[in-house]
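stage 2 :: seqdesign
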């Protein structure tokens, strides 16, 4: 009887989660109608980069945008086939992704902790100002979060199997070709399986599981890696190191990074290795400071609005 009651409660929590996600989907869709032009944060990248590349790809032309892979423009172009409005298509892609991020995030936390705790995380995210803004922005953020969270859920949910790890590798590959910083997922898998040994299996079993993961990862990413190698002699080529160089050595504006800062460092560095080699100690100190500041800002953004509501109610 107790098992049946627990089973019912889990289903009930999941039903509430689904209803919350659908409510958010409707609300953010309505809110997005007031967002007429992309001016939020990095939406400026959309018009000169992703929108152009989406049209190029679906016209059969080669992908040229070197900051990130072609995954997002491919999805954007696919949505645009139905709506014939590239900015509207980008908003729809972010809105749908956000709803799935909420639900898969619920499933992930329910797997790692319990469904009660997982359910509590949804309202916190739903009223978080940054999450709401990214949910209706023409950016890669929500789409990237979707595949990243999905990969994590697949890894931790249920027993380990070669098929599951291969599928997880494929999902992680999609995250990587959307944003190159998705490389943290394969690195995290290796660390979790070998160093943390969360599977508690033999070294042989864990090795085969990791190989299955990388098989799935390569199936998805191989065309991109091959093209990068042919054009730049580096399968993982991208120019995101310019942003790092601008932050570490470029001219700063009133709000931090500036166009002048990017122009200042462009041409001075050709890889992240060159930035590190120039002054390793400076790089380490700056990295630690950035990580600490970013973590603090993230936590503040996460709790600010819910905390204000709580204080208002009290």
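stage 2 :: out
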């Amino acid at each position: 009887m107790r098992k049946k009651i627990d089973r019912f409660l889990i289903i009930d929590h999941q039903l509430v989660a689904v209803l919350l996600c659908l409510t958010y989907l409707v609300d953010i869709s309505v809110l997005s109608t007031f967002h007429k032009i992309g001016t939020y944060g990095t939406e400026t990248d959309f018009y000169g980069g992703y929108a152009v590349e989406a049209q190029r790809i679906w016209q059969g032309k080669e992908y040229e945008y070197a900051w990130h892979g072609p995954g997002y423009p491919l999805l954007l172009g696919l949505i645009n086939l139905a709506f014939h409005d590239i900015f509207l298509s980008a908003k729809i892609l972010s809105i749908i992704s956000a709803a799935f991020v909420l639900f898969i995030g619920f499933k992930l936390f329910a797997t790692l902790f319990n469904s009660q705790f997982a359910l509590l995380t949804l309202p916190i995210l739903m009223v978080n100002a940054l999450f709401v803004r990214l949910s209706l922005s023409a950016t890669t953020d929500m789409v990237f979060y979707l595949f990243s969270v999905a990969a994590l859920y697949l890894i931790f949910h249920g027993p380990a199997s070669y098929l599951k790890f291969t599928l997880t590798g494929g999902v992680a590959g999609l995250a990587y070709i959307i944003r190159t910083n998705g490389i943290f997922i394969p690195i995290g898998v290796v660390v979790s399986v070998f160093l943390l040994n969360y599977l508690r299996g033999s070294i042989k079993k864990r090795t085969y599981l990791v190989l299955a993961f990388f098989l799935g990862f390569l199936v998805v990413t191989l065309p991109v890696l091959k093209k990068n190698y042919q054009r730049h002699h580096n399968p993982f080529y991208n120019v995101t190191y310019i942003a790092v160089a601008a932050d570490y050595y470029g001219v700063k504006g009133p709000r931090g990074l500036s166009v002048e800062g990017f122009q200042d460092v462009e041409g001075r560095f050709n890889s992240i290795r060159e930035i590190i080699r120039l002054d390793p100690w400076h790089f380490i100190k700056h990295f630690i400071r950035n990580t600490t500041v970013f973590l603090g800002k993230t936590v503040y953004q996460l709790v600010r609005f819910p905390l204000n509501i709580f204080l208002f109610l009290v």
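stage 3 :: structure notes
- The chain has a mean pLDDT of 82.
- The longest strand covers residues 252-253.
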